[in-house]
User: Fold these one by one.
Assistant:
Number 1:
Amino acid sequence: MISVEEALRRILERAPRLPAETVGLGAARGRVLREDVFADRDLPPFHRSAVDGYAVRAACLAGGGRLRVVDQIPAGTMPKVRLGPGEAAAIMTGAPLPEGADAAIMVEDTVRDGDFVVWPAPGRTPPAVEPGNRVTARGAEVLRGAKLLEAGVRVSPAAVGLLATVGKVRVEVARRPRIAVFSTGDELRHPRTARPRPAEIRDANSHLIAARCRALGLPVRRLGFAADDPDHLAATVASGLVADVLFISGGVSMGRYDYVEPVLERAGVRLLVTAVAIRPGKPFVFGITGDAPPVLVFGLPGNPVSALTTFEVFARPALDAMQGVADARPPRPSVRLLAPVRGSGPRRAFLPARVGVAEDGTLTARPIRSQGSGDIAAVALANALVIVPEDTEAIPAGASVEAQPLPGFPDAGAGWHDPRR
Amino acid sequence: MISVEEALRRILERAPRLPAETVGLGAARGRVLREDVFADRDLPPFHRSAVDGYAVRAACLAGGGRLRVVDQIPAGTMPKVRLGPGEAAAIMTGAPLPEGADAAIMVEDTVRDGDFVVWPAPGRTPPAVEPGNRVTARGAEVLRGAKLLEAGVRVSPAAVGLLATVGKVRVEVARRPRIAVFSTGDELRHPRTARPRPAEIRDANSHLIAARCRALGLPVRRLGFAADDPDHLAATVASGLVADVLFISGGVSMGRYDYVEPVLERAGVRLLVTAVAIRPGKPFVFGITGDAPPVLVFGLPGNPVSALTTFEVFARPALDAMQGVADARPPRPSVRLLAPVRGSGPRRAFLPARVGVAEDGTLTARPIRSQGSGDIAAVALANALVIVPEDTEAIPAGASVEAQPLPGFPDAGAGWHDPRR
């Protein structure tokens, strides 16, 4: 058995960095940048009024004043009139200051009197007007040529807005890994099977893993499930190896392993990880094809909790690394246990839990009652995996442990209840 | 001015609960359940071997034993042979135990000797075999009829697996709110404009808000941008009101408000929120049409930071509530400040920040250097908004504050650096 860290090291060492591709602005969200993004102009590109009101010379309003309004400045055009002493221009939020002006005053602080504006309005006591008052100077936010985003970051929705602002309507991002997934097992039936026979169960894992990959924004081909038959398995493996990453669920525990291994070997897959000190998930295996770049093959355990756990711990960092994410380690914030948990001897344990926010703002974790690695009802309720280190007998309620976030992390409150009770 | 809480209360009070619709398994992820989900059978549906090895009667192995192997049990079929005393059946992980058996033993702990299996293997000292050993009893994980998922929860990837397991291939979920979004302003140009004139800026907000809604899984129609012209604005508003929620960015500060208000009024929109004690975001407005159910209209400020902030604080909870999410409040975990922040007098302040995980597991927040509410470069780097309460002058580094997560929350480490420096 090797440690979780050693297994992850071997996997990340082999994860190929996928090439870049160019996408349009509408497809950039969630993708990983493969180029730095720079400002093509100063932002704001002009001295910008931060208020609706009047552009003025601050010096003309020392102790109050009455200014002639000589222009009205709409957004979108540069003012043509230069302000002289004793003059003002009506201006809107976001519009450019005219030459000669060095400040803006708020319309609420003024009274209009025909062609003149009076500041301050009777009964108002605004602070003195200084040069720069209510104005964002040209380039104050961003100077032309400045680096704004770096290769290796995932494009947030606000970053889409930034790309739009600097005119970056085509952007270099990592190609996304193409995923193929199937389950194995003679006992499996399609979920639409209304009445499985007593020894049959419906296939969950290919749907679970496909949904997880789609939540990560990745294109997935679901190949359904393969029977415990070498020819059928070989054909399914072959069709899966056209992807960048193949997930096979089940068929990797000892009894079946004997016949999955030769099938993978004949398909040119070399196994680099075969026994990890993790619970659940010990039957996890990882291999690569001889192609350049290699196809990554993850043999996930047939138990759904094990499948999800090994996906999160081993596959998700690899999928990020393939896209060039600068730091592919998953975050592992501390959470306070609301109930005790037990360890798994020499194996690192990952336990489904519901993480929320207590009244005092701390993250709390309620371990989800689980009947073991087959209990998909438990993991379906989880928004985190609580980590119990190797060789830890038990951790009491109230203690802090690391947790790896899942979708839905964290809840707003700490009052989550288990619908099964 | 009204408080953030009061504004949110008014908005949630008017957010209509959208009807349910039925979707297939492949479309269920991320949707909000509108029905409870129950188990249609026991899980596991049979006494299930947890190991590859042999099904046995525990009593026959007291102190070790040699058993005749009378059957081999593949997954997917019920065993036909009943075990008698002194007998065993080869069995694979996940296969049903035969009648007469009450435990399973691991193949690693045995030696095969022709038709017989010997336990323990020489040199192995496994624990004594008790009834139930390495077996998951029928119904141990889930009893038929048990409630597994409740209406009001968002379907996680693992929950997709659970739906598959219980044969729930068509499921009732909330219809998603249909979104329309446009920006206003004569100064706006399309992002593809290679060289905007000095007074022009590229439209960021309609792209930012559309990307944010898509990240929430919502269908968005982007209507581009409207000029500062009542007829053009009226036509754009009219086409936006066929959606469930309309976002208008810009045109809601005092100078322009005078002409946006009559356009909205003529379109039948009644404003219920017009001045909130929030920074950035004071020009935010909210209204509803007279339809039943009403269309929600969010007038977001034209500044991108203000637009994102008011979206997160006011619109996101409303979008969740429309789908019937049980608790639409956003989570607000405590984070430790890595630098001091300043408040905004009587207004609640939301500051873009990068939240990561320190060595000791605590969440840390690095406030992002920002030149104010127009600084889209700052908010593009944020994965959280740090909250400074009303009437708070300043909060020192090292203190804990609440933060509202954004996409990408949290980073794995605390070592984030600003690419602009």
Number 2:
Amino acid sequence: MKTRKLANAIRILSINAIQKANSGHPGMPMGMADIAEVLWRKYINHNPNNPLWFNRDRFILSNGHGSILLYSILHLTGYNLTIEDIKNFRQLNSKTPGHPEYNNLLNGIETTTGPLGQGLANGIGFAIAESILSKQFNKPNYNIIDHKTYIFVGDGCLMEGISHEVCSLAGTLKLNKIIVFYDDNNISIDGNVKKWFNEDVEKRFKSYNWNVINNVNGHNNKEIKKAIQKAHNEKIKPTLIICKTIIGYGSPNKSGTSDVHGAPLGINEVEATRIKLNWNYSKFEIPKKVYLKWDAKKKGQKKEDEWNILIKNYKKKYTQLYLELKRRLNNEIPKLFNIKIDKFIYKTQIKPENIATRKASQNTLEFLGKMLPELIGGSADLTPSNLSNWSGSKSFNNDNSGNYIHYGVREFGMSAITNGIALHGALLPYSATFLVFFEYAHNAIRMASLMKLRLIFIYTHDSIGLGEDGPTHQPIEALSNLRIIPNMNTWRPCDQVETIVAWKHAINRLNSPTTLVFTRQNVVQQIRDLKQIKNIYKGGYIIKDCNKFPDIIFISTGSELNITIITFRKLIKIGIYTRVISMPSTNVFDKQSEKYKNKILPNIIKNRISIEASISDYWYKYVGINGTIIGMKTFGESGSAEKLFKKFGFTINNILKEAKKMLIRNYSNNKI
Amino acid sequence: MKTRKLANAIRILSINAIQKANSGHPGMPMGMADIAEVLWRKYINHNPNNPLWFNRDRFILSNGHGSILLYSILHLTGYNLTIEDIKNFRQLNSKTPGHPEYNNLLNGIETTTGPLGQGLANGIGFAIAESILSKQFNKPNYNIIDHKTYIFVGDGCLMEGISHEVCSLAGTLKLNKIIVFYDDNNISIDGNVKKWFNEDVEKRFKSYNWNVINNVNGHNNKEIKKAIQKAHNEKIKPTLIICKTIIGYGSPNKSGTSDVHGAPLGINEVEATRIKLNWNYSKFEIPKKVYLKWDAKKKGQKKEDEWNILIKNYKKKYTQLYLELKRRLNNEIPKLFNIKIDKFIYKTQIKPENIATRKASQNTLEFLGKMLPELIGGSADLTPSNLSNWSGSKSFNNDNSGNYIHYGVREFGMSAITNGIALHGALLPYSATFLVFFEYAHNAIRMASLMKLRLIFIYTHDSIGLGEDGPTHQPIEALSNLRIIPNMNTWRPCDQVETIVAWKHAINRLNSPTTLVFTRQNVVQQIRDLKQIKNIYKGGYIIKDCNKFPDIIFISTGSELNITIITFRKLIKIGIYTRVISMPSTNVFDKQSEKYKNKILPNIIKNRISIEASISDYWYKYVGINGTIIGMKTFGESGSAEKLFKKFGFTINNILKEAKKMLIRNYSNNKI
């Protein structure tokens, strides 16, 4: 076995850190160490002094369980990651958690990985972002946006369906700056993969129009270099380098087996490996010579300095563009944006229209698109249904100066690519599908929330109100699913005014994602005064009230608000003091002051009824055990929206009936 | 344009039904009509008199938006589906909902389709089931299980990631009885697919080891026949027939465009199409001659009769096997099963062991496997972590007499295949992954619930208790997400006894799915009397009580139950009357009588605290607005389970603190 000292530093750090933590995945870091060494030392233009330098190459460890590989590299090349951090691998509050975590303590992690296949998808999002930005900002002799995206993937990533979605799309989109290294080691957790993963990966990726470099010995630096060079020379296609590696390379007794996949080597095998690798130092000791060779600070700083000079000259020559880029990099909203959108909101309020909120969203995009060139849209083959485009939408699929991506029927891939575009920076992506199909992409939505990405997921066809397509297409659980994801804000506006406010809130949310949920069908625009318009932004507000202490409070959202308000009028007529709360975003409402919340929904009022065509359970949070929830308890059915709303109890009569029942139950009310 | 009258009957019914409904997707039924005609008239061994005849070929319309194609065929071949049903297309309570619905009013629908790609996956499940059953039951000269699975797919299905997962696996598993027809029409909702779906499908499926028959003119019956014949001759590989079709074939002005994908043709174009097709009858009139040629009742009955004779002789010769098959087809549990498992439960109760519930589940499988040969297991490459195998597990991947499927890292594909195995009948499938990765498969879990399939999803590593792998692997929202899916029962047992009961309940649930959620880490076995053991089956029961009216009620599940019980003891010691409810399944508890529920959790007791390491919001349903929820409000972190439980408040001290706070708040209690 021929091994190189520089790569062995990775192996030694990895197996010792894992042994110390008594958990982790040594096989992959040992197998990919040689490739990592060549790539990081020869090619990646990173700067450990400033890990967030914008034109850096992006590196993604899609097989994130091998996190210690990345930590070892960051340590060795000179990032702010000490040997103590390596020793704290997988410990609470360390810089080195079990999987690489973006937006945590350590800069230099481009995305959180672990859920397989998604890192690859994020990387394709990076490449799309790079491509769009280069068209938006580069000028002759000023390639200020010009970097590659390198991705490590394992068998698992390639088995996952999302790898198919995004790689097929990447080939079609001709994203030649993507270079993927496939760790072809034949081993997964259940054993030798050939019994469940026997596809011809080269042929598969060629079918996607990729440049495939096969049979690269992942333990031979010359072959690795040659492959990377070839990838760099490719001007059209993304590149897949299929690296034949031995899992746990260096471990004399366990390499090449699934034993080494997900468990520490054991003290004896760590020692045997040390001897095998001819490594004559203590557990966490790296010789100075090795550190020196790995150190990338000087080289990296030089690259960044060159870029800074380029940018300085660019600033002089293309001042407006420079300022625009700067604004984006600083995650700033254009001046006057909020003033202008507020005007738009007021204007819309006084020009009522009973349109679907998906249409209201498209109208809003028409406003936003012109002000926010950072907006990058897209849909999973439902553009005419989602109404996710606007007059300035230009297809990226035709020309990478575009701002709109036709993702095809690939909800999960779309969402994880959207995450990638957001992660890259300087763009604000949104993407759209039907609400029910959020389930196809669920974990990507979770990852956006975990990473606190600034982006927007649009979901239309938000309830049984979509009608004839039936239960497979009618979301019942989705609103609840979305609302309980930490860090996510979900909005379900009731009319065009609430729609614009939801968008405004989403755009202003600089450090976490937003989900916007819209109707297929038309909704009635509600009447509001200035204060009410302002309070939409708080997620929940009083839209109708009595002038006394209410006997009963209705809470409603979206398309069900209007029947709630009609019921309110009927109750008021017969002398029942009623209040209606419009609650477009429970998440945003929850974050308001206790004072505000108690003003809107006073603790002492127990007569509460929620009305929403979505699963009932969620609403106990607002109406309590003794409240009444008019919601869904079963799946929907195929039929007209009108008949479905009637069948499932979303009618004025049913709300009236439930209100009366509640009043009779909770105190004998002589008004009833 | 050459068209055939028999296929045109499909086209005419389709466009008129869609026009009448004023919604639907005419393009696909028109494009696939010729292929459907050849397949259904010449090949499928169905019997309209008895659509559920067990050895029928299975037909799946994976592109379910073309449902009217299937309804037209079922009508024409003689199923119990009248022309009035066709006229009621997409209406409430009709036999012809917007998408084909299994387990609804119409027999002959093998699976519910609409969410793209999943029908294809179900079909692969059918083929696996057929293969396993043929090994279990066939004898020389008695091929009593011997049928094919035919699947129609569109571009959308092939773009979806799940198609990659399951087709790669199907090729590896050599499922040659699958014949997939790909409707290669170049059009999806956003327009011409080439801009987002430009892969070489033939090459891709060859990379999966499929038999691919390309360039079949989907409007030429001879070519279609030839292709099907070739597919039948294939003895190893699954077959993909790539049919070049014209979407909306027959519509003179709209065929070949995305206009015809998702909207009615319009009255004028329907009329133009009628003329173009030379169809001289009124809207829903089919000439008798055409009906006669389509009628499959006689032919189908003959095929079934032959099979019935075969079965009759088989019964004589292989009586035991026959009885076993009969039991399975009747969805019966073996006699004595419940008596034996009850004994196993009692025996386990009196032999306490503090093991992880995933391990307890494996021990239970050891018991179940021997009694239930219909159990077909599997894992998405996490067998040694999920502990989803048992000593009798034999890999189907090696030999299709096996009962355990190594699915590879393919959660969504696995789950939809599991649905397919359940749909096929005579097998009881279960499949396993980590709880957090249920999100990768979310919509398949929903589909299982919508279809009310008898199957079991196992999810291990159920909380922050999995420790070091960190937030990407720690489910927070999943329990809530699973619990709110209509028809699904979710269990989270606290120890090995509750684990066996959960399994018992799942096995006895003949008409809907169950989810079993298990810990990675060891849990303490609880003490129970006979009555308590019996009440586990009710989903929630009193595990600790005071002999007075309780001051406070704790509700807890799974790994958090033990600290709750220790806290209970402390409170009892200081004179606080406390009750502890173990609630392994909220869904099952919800279905108990009001009397039982009120006995366990009396309405009048408002001092309630829930303790579960899962998202808080769900628990308002049980503790109310003024209750206390000790749950998760954020994502988890990477670290040891012990430290994480402490950090997030799952400690005896914190429960004590919250209990005291509640008692002080709700009434000045001089005990505190």
